[in-house]
Design a protein that fits this description.
about 100 residues; mainly alpha; 2 strands; rod-shaped
């Protein structure tokens, strides 16, 4: 299958040859899914490049003074997970397996 592309006409009236790069760009821009994929890829690459500038934390940093210390309470403003109010919990896999709040089967 061949793509026929009408060559643009210059101001002098003679048809103008399109470069292979321009033809490839036109063909690429016709495919919407390819353009969406290119935009998503560009956003991921941009996030990878700009991310360390916005969050300058070392992901491999270890605090030796925190080793073997108990967890600290959650002091952030994030909401805590809801507490179950039922007295029995049943397994979603095996409905016949139910246990009380003490979680002993």
């Amino acid at each position: 299958m061949t793509d026929t592309v009408a060559a643009p006409v210059s101001s002098s009236g003679a048809p103008q040859e399109l470069s292979p790069r321009r033809l490839a760009l036109r063909r690429f821009l016709r495919h919407r899914l390819a353009v969406v994929g290119a935009v998503v890829l560009l956003v991921v690459v941009l996030a990878a490049v700009v991310g360390p500038l916005l969050l300058p934390f070392d992901p491999n940093a270890v605090d030796p003074s925190a080793i073997r210390q108990p967890r600290t309470p959650n002091t952030s403003s994030a909401p805590t997970p809801p507490v179950a109010t039922c007295s029995r919990v049943c397994s979603p896999v095996g409905g016949s397996r139910c246990w009380s709040d003490s979680r002993s089967p």
